[in-house]
Specification:
The chain is of the alpha+beta class and 302 residues long. The chain has one domain. It is built from 8 helices and 7 strands. The strands form 2 sheets. A 4-stranded antiparallel β-sheet has the order 2-1-6-7. Strand 6 and strand 7 form a beta hairpin. Helix 2 crosses helix 4, helix 2 runs parallel beside helix 7 and helix 4 packs across helix 7. It is elongated.
């Protein structure tokens, strides 16, 4: 069996022969980077759905400031819109947790009967924070019983500003009602005993995404060296090939060829797709103190 690296675009006959060990290392490195990209993509989906949730709150708050709407029908429309956003976020959170468990396990296989690395950290968040426990249970409630939001209110209040006058603030609050949740026999009684009669979902969602973001931070810290080593293996081969064949493009392919000259296996040797992982990591920061952050349209003096 022969193992080579060659240009995949120009179609030249320039080949760099590598060993079977090098071929396997490169193939494994590509798989490692693929798992790293998948982890960042799942986190991106999570944050995108969370942003949609927050944007819907701002949109409805702005509409409440501009238009004179009230009554039962109006609030049912608000609840329907926010239910859609919250259900999407809950679905994305389940996808995130389930998929990153598998991705990290693929990189660091757990010993038999041992909890996975991700499961340990998720369990820690579950034990420490009511908001995390409640949101996990609320997702189960959505999957088998009902929509999560039962009540909504439009809030208007005044705040003193630095000019000595008062600003009018407009916002909405959305709630899960304990009385509704009690009707579901599958909803955990212990969690019901911990929550208030009206659960302000804005607060709970923000704390929950903060917890998941902290899990992402731990995962990034855990996998960073492995990803860097995998990327360097590919980079080094690309640099070596360029030294030998400077006119070749950067689009390389690694192949295994049998004694009859037939390609039995091959894979692209590229890093542009791994650049996406790095860009996603830079873009999607770790969310801290999310319950103390909010977007405002307040006018500030220059």
């Amino acid at each position: 069996m022969k193992y080579i690296i060659k240009d995949s675009i120009l179609g030249t006959e320039n080949e760099k022969v590598i060993t079977q060990k090098e071929y396997k290392q490169l193939k494994d490195a590509r798989k490692i980077l693929a798992k790293g990209l998948a982890i960042e993509e799942k986190y991106d989906v999570l944050l995108s759905n969370y942003m949609d949730f927050e944007n819907e709150i701002l949109q409805i708050s702005t509409e409440a400031m501009i238009y004179n709407q009230n009554g039962y029908d109006y609030f049912q429309i608000i609840i329907a819109r926010m239910n859609k956003r919250l259900i999407n976020f809950l679905t994305a959170s389940r996808l995130y947790i389930d998929h990153i468990k598998q991705h990290v396990n693929d990189l660091y296989p757990a010993i038999a009967n041992e909890k996975s690395f991700v499961q340990v950290h998720c369990s820690n968040k579950y034990d420490r924070f009511l908001e995390y426990r409640f949101m996990e249970e609320l997702r189960n409630y959505v999957q088998h019983c009902e929509f999560p939001i039962h009540h909504a209110t439009v809030q208007n209040w005044k705040e003193d500003n630095k000019k000595g006058s008062r600003d009018m603030i407009h916002s909405i609050d959305i709630f899960s009602l304990k009385s509704y949740l009690k009707e579901d026999d599958k909803f955990k009684k212990k969690i019901l005993s911990e929550i208030e009669e009206k659960v302000n979902l804005k607060t709970y969602v923000r704390k929950y995404v903060e917890c998941l973001s902290e899990v992402q931070a731990v995962i990034r810290n855990r996998v960073t060296n492995k990803l860097s080593e995998a990327r360097k293996l590919i980079e080094d081969q690309m640099v070596e090939h360029k030294k030998i064949y400077p006119k070749d493009s950067s689009a390389l392919i690694a192949s295994s060829i049998n004694s009859k000259g037939i390609v039995t296996d091959e894979f692209p040797l590229l890093l542009s797709w791994d650049d996406i992982r790095i860009d996603l990591e830079k873009k999607n920061r770790i969310m801290k103190n999310q319950t103390r952050r909010y977007v405002s349209g307040q006018i500030k003096d220059a």
